[in-house]
Design a protein that fits this description.
Chain lengths: 293, 284
């Protein structure tokens, strides 16, 4: 199937010369879409792991430090007695100041600034903890206590990312359709150009499959050539995006950092596109030749 | 350059015996000695809505027969050959090749049937981007032959038709006569059961034309049925094979009338002795 010799002069097709570039562009876009999907998927996994099992309890400040300690002690006693709570840790004032520093600057260092106390709580993943009930119990002991359940906003974020991933899949689908359309067009043009030679091949006993193999092999070769060209262009682009992401310093912006299997996925992308081109070319030829005598 | 090796037809027979039978695939075609190779029954052909270019063509050819097909330009010779090599389907009537009704043959089976038919096209129809070698090799490649066999047979045959030094030449760089010999080599490389030649001597001198016709005769002796459409009455006289003639789309199989009309047996024109036409069966 992949022999280099061809009975049809397909190397001379002007239109076919553009096919590798078109496929390179498709693979370039596909690689970006795939990278986006992988990065988002990775980010969701990371957020899910980090935040799904944690809640934050916020204790409002009292009139003085003694009342603060009393409130904190009551809240911690409730948490200690609550089934499903694996671990809790009160954030130090230094940590709180560090969190607030971007907004209030050095003013946060003032000892008289009423800052709520925060408690990081890790709950057991296997135990269902009723957060609303926990909040009511805490508020009964210490009025004004609030419980932030990260799972609520995380689920919204995951939903948003899922929508983006679906859109990325749609983009990949459209790219595949565009690739197929391009291959169909160039193949049909090739059939028209080589009609005379194809007729001769038919008359000396060539099966449609014999002719289709030649178009398919050509499409595969051009697809591989264009595909790896597109991937070669996508690699520095992704590296550039990764560099810009790391330069921003924002921890929420996911960085393209791919593992072995993801890299293999990228390498297989042009191969998959080339095979798609090959199958499309073959199907196009078989379908069109049926109309010939 | 000699078309045949020095000696005589002996070497050509030796050559022919080394031919490999073409791969026939799964198709079952009965072509025993009793089975007619070609059978036309009331065949008519028209192009589009035009008039019938072939009318009521009825004839039958037995295995290993040899026919000259004569006729004026436009009489329908090429159309008849196109029906024979299945490039066209008749608008009426029935054609059987190798005992098989062509109309009832599925599209998938047609290629295997076509591999049993060698065709020398009037305009050669060589693939210009391929070398002489690759052009001649095409029917073997299409039939799935091994490259080693292809190389051996193609080189042998091209050498035999005097193109040993042009194996890698593109047809466009060769003369009309050389292209014609490539076309003939391509048609006979698989030793077809039916060989159709449309003006095979049109681009070569008489001497070369006669040599090419001897090649057809050798194949004919080995069992190939040969139909040669030609204007070259000199060749027809010298080869002394039965004739049939297309006249305004109708096939005249009355050989005596054709011979008389064209003076094919005029001893003053040719020394060829015309046989009575073995292998030719008139249906009516």
């Amino acid at each position: 199937m992949f022999r280099r010799r061809s009975d049809l002069p397909m190397n001379e097709d002007t239109l076919a010369r553009f096919l590798p570039w078109l496929i390179a562009f498709m693979v370039f876009l596909s690689a970006l879409a795939l990278a986006g999907m992988l990065v988002l998927h990775d980010a969701v996994q990371r957020w899910d792991t980090g935040l799904k099992a944690t809640i934050t309890v916020q204790v409002p400040p009292g009139a003085d430090a003694r009342e603060d300690d009393l409130r904190l002690e009551q809240v911690l006693s409730v948490l200690a007695a609550k089934p499903g709570v694996e671990r809790y840790e009160t954030m130090s004032r230094e940590s709180l100041f560090a969190l607030l520093k971007p907004w209030i600057g050095e003013a946060g260092q003032a000892q008289d600034l009423p800052i709520p106390m925060l408690i990081d709580v890790t709950v057991d993943r296997d135990t269902v903890v009723d957060i609303d009930l926990l909040a009511k119990e805490l508020q009964a002991r210490v009025p004004g206590v609030s419980v932030d359940d990260h799972r609520v906003w995380l689920s919204q974020l995951v939903r948003l990312v899922t929508v983006i991933q679906v859109l990325a899949w749609c983009v990949l689908g459209l790219i595949a359709l565009a690739t197929m359309g391009t291959v169909v067009f160039t193949t049909r043009t090739g059939l028209a150009i080589h009609r005379e030679a194809i007729e001769v091949l038919h008359l000396i006993g060539a099966q449609d499959a014999y002719i289709a193999r030649q178009f398919a092999a050509r499409a595969l070769a051009l697809g591989l050539k264009g595909g790896f060209l597109g991937l070669a262009l996508a690699a520095p682009t992704l590296a550039g995006i990764g560099y810009l992401a790391s330069e921003t310093g924002a921890t929420m912006i996911p960085k393209p950092d791919f593992g072995f299997f993801q890299v293999v996925g990228f390498v297989l992308l042009p191969v998959a596109v080339a095979f798609l081109a090959m199958i499309t070319a073959r199907a196009t030829v078989m379908r069109n030749l049926k109309r010939m005598t | 350059m000699a078309l045949f090796p020095k000696g005589n037809t002996r070497s050509s027979v030796n050559f022919s015996l080394t031919f490999r039978e073409p791969a026939q695939g799964a198709i079952k075609v009965k072509d025993s000695d009793q089975q007619s190779i070609v059978r036309f029954e009331n065949v008519g052909l028209r192009y589009g809505l035009g008039p019938e270019v072939l009318q009521d063509i009825t004839f039958e050819l037995e295995p290993a027969s040899f026919r000259f097909l004569l006729g004026e330009s436009g009489a329908g010779k090429s159309s008849l050959l196109k029906l024979l090599y299945m490039a066209l389907r008749p608008t009426r009537g029935q054609i059987s090749l190798f005992g098989r009704n062509v109309a009832a043959t599925s599209r998938n089976d047609l290629p295997r049937l076509r591999r049993r038919v060698g065709v020398v096209f009037q305009e050669f129809r060589l693939l210009d981007h391929l070398s002489a070698f690759d052009n001649v090799a095409l029917p073997m490649r299409v039939a799935g032959a091994r490259e080693a066999d292809i190389r051996r047979h193609v080189e042998e045959l091209l050498s035999w038709v005097g193109l040993k030094d042009h194996l890698n030449s593109r047809p466009t760089t060769l003369s009309g006569g050389q292209q014609q010999r490539i076309a003939i080599a391509r048609a006979v490389i698989t030793r077809p059961k039916l060989l159709l030649a449309d003006e095979p001597t049109g681009n070569v001198d008489d001497k070369m034309g006669l040599r090419l016709m001897h090649l057809f005769e050798e194949l004919n002796k080995l069992g190939t049925t040969v139909i040669v459409a030609t204007h070259n009455l000199g060749i027809v006289r010298q080869m002394a094979h039965p004739v049939m003639r297309l006249e305004n789309g109708r096939l005249n199989t009355d050989e005596a009338a054709i011979i008389s009309d064209l003076r094919l047996d005029d001893p003053g024109i040719s020394a060829g002795k015309r046989p009575s036409g073995p292998g030719f069966t008139r249906i009516h």
